[in-house]
Amino acid sequence: MRSTTTTTMAVKSKLVSLLFLIATLSSAFAASFSDSDSDSDLVNELVSLRSATESGVIHLDDHGISKFLTSASTPRPYSLLVFFDATQLHSKTELRLQELRREFGVVSASYLANNNGSEGTKLFFCEIEFSKSQSSFQLFGVNALPHIRLVSPFISNLRDESGQMDQSDYSRLAESMAEFVEQRTKLKVGPIQRPPFLSKSQIGVIVSLIVIATPFVIKRILRGETLLHDHRLWLAGAIFVYFFSVAGTMHNIIRKMPMFLQDRNDPNKLVFFYQGSGMQLGAEGFAVGFLYTVVGLLLAFVTNVLVRVKNLNAQRLVMLLALFISFWAVKKVVYLDNWKTGYGIHPYWPSSWR
């Protein structure tokens, strides 16, 4: 009798353990499916918010940061590339916030156009504006702009600056931003697709105007009454090309060099001349180009205009004045070169003068 009772109790004990194990597994599976459903809901909402904007950049506020980052459990099924903006600082052109924001939108639109499948839901481009999301700025620890940060799926501490984009990643704007994204996320952004400079309607209007104006232009060309027949236009064009060449303007365009920088020691001051041979600001090139242009114009004046003046005293006076100004301009160029690079320029006299 005792043996039967013991066996019955053992069976009941095993049955209870089995039921407890089933209940535990069921709750685990339910929690797993619940988390999966929650993650998919977040992804679907991000996709919906992205589709509502032209470039695919999602506008987030403090509530959005809480919902998609701080409240979402890690690892999240997506990464967020966040652009921090401040409307009140758009007037400070040295920060280039508006330009960087446009390029950020270009990268977002290119990524969206080149990744239509599941890859397109692994990365979302977002922006946060300071006046509407000051708490989020403090949460990320952002105290200076421009600032772009990648929040990967495993980041739980938003003050982690490992995903911050360096200033070197802004050098080539959209192209360098795309390289940063591909390097950090291992996702393919694809070719950068910039919007056309002119829309189809604008091109149609321009073509219509050209067709209408063509007969009148041909008539004036045959009569020799166009601007191309005006020697003053060619003179101004030659001076412009000369200044464009000696001022290093092509270097500034290719390297996208700023005209000036903000002084690190005093933010209220601007730096127009950078001391060091590794960098040249736009203002430096224009200043040196202006001095070169002055010397070139004086040389052209002396050789083409002054020689026609019959008064010898006037010729000598103007010649001395031109020589003095040219000497001053060249001396300034030599001084700036020595100050910037540290290299000195010394005159070489004929050996018979020594």
Automatic annotation (TrEMBL):
Taxonomic lineage of the native organism: Eukaryota, Viridiplantae, Streptophyta, Embryophyta, Tracheophyta
Record keywords: Endoplasmic reticulum, Membrane, Signal, Transmembrane, Transmembrane helix
Localisation per UniProt entry: Endoplasmic reticulum membrane
Species of origin: Camelina sativa
Superkingdom assignment: Eukaryota
Entry keyword Ribonucleoprotein: no
Classification via Pfam families: OST3_OST6
Segments passing through the bilayer: 203-222, 234-254, 286-307, 314-330
Lipid bilayer topology: Multi-pass membrane protein
Main subcellular localisation: endoplasmic reticulum
Protein name, per record: Probable dolichyl-diphosphooligosaccharide--protein glycosyltransferase subunit 3B
Family: Belongs to the OST3/OST6 family.
Function recorded in the entry: Subunit of the oligosaccharyl transferase (OST) complex that catalyzes the initial transfer of a defined glycan (Glc(3)Man(9)GlcNAc(2) in eukaryotes) from the lipid carrier dolichol-pyrophosphate to an asparagine residue within an Asn-X-Ser/Thr consensus motif in nascent polypeptide chains, the first step in protein N-glycosylation. N-glycosylation occurs cotranslationally and the complex associates with the Sec61 complex at the channel-forming translocon complex that mediates protein translocation across the endoplasmic reticulum (ER). All subunits are required for a maximal enzyme activity.
Signal peptide: 1-30
Entry keyword Transmembrane: yes
